[in-house]
Structures are given as C-alpha cells and as structure tokens.
Predict the structure.
Amino acid sequence: MPVALPSKMIAVGFDSPGGPEVLAPREIAVPAPGPGEVLVKVAFAGVNRPDVVQRQGHYPPPPGASPIPGLEIAGEAVALGDGVDASLLGQTVCALVTGGGYAEYCLAHAAHCLPVPESLPLDQAAALPETLLTVWHNVFERGWATAGETILVHGGTSGIGTMATMLGKLFGLDVIVTCGGPEKCARALEIGAAHAIDYRASDFVAEVQRITRGRGVQLVLDMVAGDYVPRNLKCLAEDGRHVTIAVQGGARAELNMAVIMARRYTLTGSTLRPRPAEFKALLVQEVATNAWPLVISGELRPIMDKRFALAEAAAAHARMEAGEHIGKIVLEV
C-alpha cells in the first residue's frame, strides 16, 4: 500500500563552499520519482571523501544531480516512478546515488539499488554502495586483479582502503596497505591486510620491495596521485597496473615514460559519480552477482567508524578531514 508522503523534508546542504561549518539543515520539497526511479525514505547516509571535496567547492555535482551532498543511502522504498517493478515498494534497499543522500528522502535509480538482507544493519548497508562499487570497478574491472596477485592500497584504514583490503582478501589477493601511524597499521592487519606500512616512519617503496623480495606488486590502488605516482611505479612488478581513484596529493605527476614502456605498465583511473546511469546499472549487476552474495552470507561487512545525526553532518565532515577515522562514517536520519 502506498505510503502517505509529506511535501517537505529536512536536508543538509550549503549555500557557498567552505569548511564543515557551512553545512546546515534546511527544509526543501520532497522529490518525486521519475521514470525508472525510486524514492527512498532514508534511514542512514554514508559520508565519503567526495562529499567533503564537493563542500569545499572542488567537485560540483554532475548535470541534473541534486546539489545536496550524499552518494549512498539505505532505507525503505516508499514511492516508485513509471516502469519500476511494483514489488520494490516497501522493500529495504541501499543505493548508489549521484547526490541528495543527506536528507530524509532521496531519489535513486531502481537499477542502482541493492536489496538489504535482514542480517545487515541499515547503518552498515548505507556504508556499502560507494566503496564496494568503487573498489569492484577499479580493482577487478579496471585493474584486472586475479587471485594470487599482490596489491598495494594507500589509505588502508579509510572506507575505500578497508573495503579494498577485505574484498581483495576474499578474492585471493595479498593486500599491502599504507597507514599513518602504528595504531592504524595494527588495525589494518586486524581487518585483513597481509602487511601494513607506516608511511610516516618508513619509505613505503623500500618496504614494498622488502616485503615482495624485490618482485614488486601487480597492482596499486592510488588515492593520493601527485608525487606518489612515480613512487608507486617503483613498487610495480613488470606488466603492473596503476589505478588512480582520487588526487588528494595533487592532480599532476612527473613520470619517466621510458620506464613505463620498458616495464609495460598500465596506468588508468576513474571517477564513479559522473558516469552514465546505464554504466552504473551494469556495475551494480556485476556487484550483485559477484560480491553481494558475500554480504548476504555475512562474510563481507563494512568497517564502521562513527555515526552522527543528520543535523551533525558538519561534525562528521570535520572527523573525516581530521583523518583519524577508521572505516566508514554515516549519518543517521
């Protein structure tokens, strides 16, 4: 039976870019689902680094996307647009969205939703879509990772880093991570990394060469870019792949192309948010087939850091920017 919906809702956004303090609740209209869309009554929304970059003014939403931050949600499907299977109404789902997650209601493409099993708490469900889809696409599709290979992951205790560690281990990869400090390294090992390098205390290039006995790794998942890229390449074995998914250390890198040619490296990267809806639907199908069964069985669960109330989104952003979190931060709506 259709749910009676309010005309207004609370959402957290900002008028001008700035620090976490620019985030504030405001009352806006509840959106109506268009063809192929689902309106989700949000229980939890994930907080991700792109939300922070958007708030800072460096990552505007793609055309047609909500200006409200928030790229992943979990909750109940309460209204359906034309062409959506009626059985979805009332179902508990989590979804990848292009924006609008920091709100009481959010639109999602029906094809971008995943069913939430009863065994999965909703805060954890909201912490999965962005990191799981990003890691699956970049490690296994763009990075061609296969069982028995070794991957180097920077930011080992971040949301992406923890997901890459757990998913990589489940699919037979040896995972080496870098972390800032001995406490984070210890936690990364508990999460499943084979090796954790404290980049503040040692040179990660030398450590990778020591760990791999000079062979290097087959794949690097890079969130830093900048001057890390030439250092990352020194960690790669011949025919190695380097996948960049963020540029936290700067967008420019100086590379020796002769080395890239001689060692047959592949350099690639991607951003998920601006990709077409059709691409994301295919990616969700891939994850539903290959990785979601591990969620249903309980073998794969996100590492959770802290939850904040929706109105405390500014504090959630401040925690992410401080870099002390381990795993995922979520907003409770």
The first strand starts at residue 8 and ends at 13. The domain at 131-269 is CATH 3.40.50.720 (Rossmann fold). The two ends are 23 Å apart (CA to CA).
